[in-house]
Design a protein that fits this description.
5-stranded mixed sheet; 6 helices; alpha/beta; 157 residues; Mannitol-specific EII, Chain A
Length: 157
């Protein structure tokens, strides 16, 4: 599975309204549930919050990767949120977050889940990826940026 498939345009929300971590979890989970027609809101929120209790997923300057496992989803999903004003996320560096890559996985897909997290970390090592993605005005543009940088990464392997 590729990240550009995982973070498909219909699961990218540009212009997040949330101001803090709890709000962004709710905003992205509500968005996911609406798009997918899922009624697993509470279970998904619980999975994300349980993972977050271990350590903040605000991992890099301006970037958070909240993720959780729950059997409410039958496969791995990604939801990307882009914030213009920044989110108070309790990130490890104390800075606001602008890109939120939420990943939801069923328990039986742990290996694939970890591989996707690793590939995302590789993309996030490229500062141009962050800058180009944060500048996008719509979901199609954001999806195109993910595909472009993932294609470059794959070509280098």
């Amino acid at each position: 599975m590729f990240l550009y498939d995982l973070f498909s345009p219909e699961l990218i929300k540009v212009g997040l309204e949330s101001e803090d971590k709890d709000e962004v979890f709710e905003e992205l989970v509500d968005y996911f549930c609406q798009v997918q027609g899922s009624d697993g809101r509470e279970e998904i929120l619980a999975a994300l919050k349980a993972r977050e209790l271990k350590m903040s997923t605000g991992i890099r300057k301006g970037i958070a990767v909240p993720h959780g496992q729950t059997d409410v989803v039958e496969r791995i999903y990604g939801v990307l949120g882009i914030s213009r004003q920044g989110i108070d996320y309790d990130a490890l560096d104390g800075e606001p977050v602008y890109l939120v890559f939420m990943i939801l996985a069923p328990y039986h897909d742990s290996e694939k889940h970890l591989r996707l997290l690793k590939r995302l970390a590789q993309l996030l090592d490229n500062g141009e990826f962050f800058r180009d993605l944060a500048a996008q005005k719509d979901a199609q543009g954001a999806s195109g940026v993910i595909k472009k940088y993932e294609d470059i990464l794959i070509a280098l392997d």
